[in-house]
């Protein structure tokens, strides 16, 4: 089925959302709900379809061309198609890297537009934000190096800096700029506080995962910048906001993952021995077998980090 469905997608236009959206969903689940050996073959089939990859690039580019929706919580057919496109491309990036699959057509994207879609959210639907952050997280995990993707829009920035050479920090973090990093961190922090009030669990998980990958990327490129980001006092307020959102327990997946992140980078001004003791006490009193899977996994990583 991958052959006819992927060929059908390649003959569509980005505005054919009624046909494209379920078709892209089928391709996405075909990649994820299969055995590893079949997964490798599925990736090869999709990456060999030039028309499909050209269509996916056009779909992603529609993200910056669409005007903000008047009802951001409502997912229109066009927004649903964008979600499917971002998630499918993120999956193709992941599995192409894993299996080192041959690429027959490169997708070009402007990194500044991807970052601005998160930093300046402009009433984007929640699922669309989650999808774009999943894509960005994959890029960060791969150090912005992929055979499938080329990031454009960087040469213009380099040309503008010829008269004034980039700082050592910017050079180390390339293709990110230091100011972009700080803007992205601030946006993720604010988004996490905002969505905690609305109980948007899916988006809070995506934000924390993106923040984790960003700090890991920074640590590999420039440890000083990574430690500076991880030890920002605003993170302390983040924890208070998460704990005062109605569920006081430290045994929330997002809280545990943030605590683990701060422990990993020794942010003693964010997390103290008192908080560690409280988590250990709550874990000792909880029925571990009854904890949700996400909580159990986050607690395991926290205890391992301790």
UniProtKB/TrEMBL annotation:
| This protein's name | MEI1 protein
What is any one GO biological process for this UniProt entry?
A: meiosis I
